């Protein structure tokens, strides 16, 4: 952060991770900066009301998400969310410590926090709550001292420790100026990230178009075509067959939640794959649950094998799928993930490509919504229609897709790395500002054009990946 000056003088604190702070700042306990720190209540859910339940999923992704909002008819005053409250995800693994500044006021609704969300509020105007939000958002390690085991042995942030957390505390006008600075810079960074994400979506569409063409038309543009007799397949090469999934698989079935639920999860052990672990481009083990070998062996019917295709069959990620390679090792799945085990009539990766293509995804959505049910059942899956080329042609199609999409994947990877660097920069900028390592008191918003990091990204329409190269 060499672009910004430091404060003229500093003083030591007794806080190891904080070190020195500006001479005129204080180090204060959170309970002395705000007058309300409390968890919400367990809701009494109803089909609809004017009281919306705020749970960790509503904000833990970094944006406000009401796609799965639920309602309650119960109000407990300590759970009512006020505008500019700081929300803190306080239990669980992957979202523990995630923060959000609540600005979603609506005159026709009340928002009520559930028991997994902590509300932090100062109603006396002693602090700028944006400053509290930015501080708590910078690095989860700063609040590690607040972690404990709850009554159900669930990892949680306990409020009695949170209240005693020490924070740097500049004078209120300076808090506001720091918050204004960070609001401005974060808006620029978010704009940059949005542009980059648009580029990624364009590239993914190009990749998907290559896959769709290959798995429905093959590689020979002059091949003789025939009517498949299936609406979403249309015309297919004359020498291809139409097969239902049940005739080219040995197994279609999902797992179950282990007896005891999350209480049987362990820090080490066999991966229990859930829907959040299955993505179109990978099996992500960064937030995987684990079970001990005895639990794994008691769930024999849902043990995962090499060359299985795993497909999410419920929830917001329904239809996402990927295939199992020899690098995964032993694993199991819960009831939200379906194991599809192919016969030797279809190559595993080819099956994955078909299921992830428009042909496969159209059937996912048809059976979910056209059938009037939530999620996919096994009978639906067994009746999926696939256009099946001979094995040697399947192999050729796989190789061609790999070649045609490799440059696209490289471009996506490059952009994602750039986005990660910008996110790291944002975290460092926030940390340096709220801990007094940089002095932004003389900053003015008209300095936008002087920012060291360019916040302009190419329009998505101008960023094209061709089949024989990249134009950027």
TrEMBL record:
Similarity remark: Belongs to the type-I restriction system S methylase family.
Keywords: Coiled coil, DNA-binding, Restriction system
All copies of domain Type I restriction modification DNA specificity, residue ranges: 22-187, 239-412
GO MF annotation, one: DNA binding
Coiled-coil region: 398-428
A Pfam family of this chain: Methylase_S
Species this chain originates from: Marinoscillum furvescens DSM 4134
CDD domains reported for this sequence: RMtype1_S_EcoJA65PI-TRD1-CR1_like
GO biological process: DNA restriction-modification system
Matches recorded under InterPro entries: Restrct_endonuc_typeI_TRD, Restrct_endonuc_typeI_TRD_sf, Type-I_RS_S_subunit
Protein's name according to its UniProt entry: Type I restriction enzyme S subunit
């Amino acid at each position: 952060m060499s672009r910004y000056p430091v404060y003229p003088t500093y003083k030591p604190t007794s806080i190891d991770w904080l070190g020195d702070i500006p001479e005129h700042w204080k180090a204060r306990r959170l309970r002395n900066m705000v007058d309300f720190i409390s968890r919400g209540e367990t809701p009494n859910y109803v089909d609809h009301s004017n009281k919306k339940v705020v749970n960790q999923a509503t904000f833990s992704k970094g944006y406000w998400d009401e796609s799965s909002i639920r309602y309650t008819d119960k109000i407990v005053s300590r759970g009512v969310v006020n505008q500019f409250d700081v929300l803190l995800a306080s239990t669980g693994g992957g979202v523990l410590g995630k923060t959000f500044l609540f600005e979603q006021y609506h005159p026709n609704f009340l928002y009520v926090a559930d028991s997994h969300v902590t509300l932090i509020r100062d109603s006396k105007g002693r602090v700028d709550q944006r400053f509290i939000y930015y501080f708590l958002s910078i690095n989860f390690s700063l609040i590690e001292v607040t972690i404990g085991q709850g009554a159900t042995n669930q990892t949680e942030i306990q409020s009695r420790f949170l209240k005693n957390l020490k924070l740097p505390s500049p004078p209120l006008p300076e808090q506001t100026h720091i918050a204004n600075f960070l609001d401005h810079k974060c808006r620029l960074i978010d704009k940059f990230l949005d542009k980059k994400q648009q580029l990624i979506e364009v590239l993914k569409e190009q990749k998907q178009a290559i896959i769709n063409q290959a798995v429905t038309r093959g590689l020979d543009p002059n091949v003789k075509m025939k009517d498949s007799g299936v609406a979403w397949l249309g015309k297919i090469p004359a020498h291809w067959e139409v097969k239902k999934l049940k005739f080219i698989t040995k197994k279609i079935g999902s797992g179950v939640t282990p007896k005891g639920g999350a209480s049987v999860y362990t820090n080490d052990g066999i991966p229990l794959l859930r829907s959040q672990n299955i993505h179109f481009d990978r099996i992500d083990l960064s937030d995987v649950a684990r079970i001990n070998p005895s639990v794994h062996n008691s769930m024999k019917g849902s043990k995962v094998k090499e060359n299985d295709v795993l497909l999410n069959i419920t929830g917001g990620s329904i239809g996402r799928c990927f295939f199992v390679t020899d690098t995964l090792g032993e694993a199991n799945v819960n009831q939200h993930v379906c194991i599809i085990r192919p016969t030797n009539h279809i190559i595993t990766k080819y099956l994955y490509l078909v299921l992830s293509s428009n042909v496969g995804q159209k059937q996912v959505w048809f059976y979910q919504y056209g059938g009037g049910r939530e999620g996919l059942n096994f009978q639906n899956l067994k009746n999926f229609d696939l256009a099946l080329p001979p094995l040697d042609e399947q192999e050729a199609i796989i190789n061609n897709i790999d070649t045609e999409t490799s440059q696209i994947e490289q471009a996506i990877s490059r952009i994602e790395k750039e986005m990660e660097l910008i996110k790291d920069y944002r975290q460092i900028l926030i940390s340096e500002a709220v801990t007094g390592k940089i002095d932004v008191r003389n900053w003015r918003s008209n300095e936008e054009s002087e920012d060291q990091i360019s916040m302009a990204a190419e329009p998505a329409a101008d960023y094209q990946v061709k089949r024989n190269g990249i134009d950027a």
